[in-house]
Design goal:
Number of helices: 8
Order of helices and strands: HHHHHHHH
Radius of gyration: 19 Å
Number of strands: 0
Largest sheet: none
Strand content: under 5%
Distance between the termini: 34 Å
Low-confidence stretches: none
Mean pLDDT: 81
Length: 152
């Protein structure tokens, strides 16, 4: 790869939509992972975890992440608006390309999308009895990711 190509890739990765898209794609893949993994799981593993527990957790994540993402985006837009009128254009660009803010928003959008896809596939019964355990463990991982993200 040439240095110009690497420079263009770096510029592209500084965009919010790129990070949010990548995390969202990862969320969809994680929600659909059960189709691949389910045939290899033991049948008695899923009996201890009811589908209602997974549904309840996913519903909570979906509703709360929608609210948190909306609030975070409105706060970010307000900060950008204040920066554009009060500081130099270079400082505004640095604020807009802040990786921590972009990662947080991408995590919120990704967790919302994961929960939405998982709720839909659970409601369709597509996971089956054995496949239900995979969204449960991925959901626990997403909850840990949300907590870590909020603490940052």
């Amino acid at each position: 790869m040439t240095s110009k190509t690497i420079w263009r890739l770096r510029l592209l990765t500084r965009k919010l939509w790129v990070r949010a898209t990548l995390i969202s794609l990862l969320a969809v893949v994680a929600a659909l992972l059960a189709f691949v993994v389910a045939p290899y799981l033991p049948e008695d593993l899923s009996t201890g975890i009811g589908s209602e527990s997974v549904d309840n957790i996913l519903s909570s994540i979906a509703s709360s992440m929608l609210a948190v993402t909306t609030f975070s985006l409105s706060t970010m837009i307000t900060a950008y608006g204040a920066a554009t009128s009060n500081v130099t254009p270079r400082a505004t660009r640095l604020i807009m390309e802040d990786s921590i803010t972009q990662n947080v928003l991408a995590a919120f959008v990704g967790s919302f999308l994961f929960s939405l896809v998982a709720i839909i596939t659970l409601a369709m019964g597509a996971y089956g009895e054995r496949g239900r355990i995979v969204p449960f463990f991925v959901t626990l991982f997403v909850v840990v990711l949300i907590v870590v993200t909020l603490l940052r």
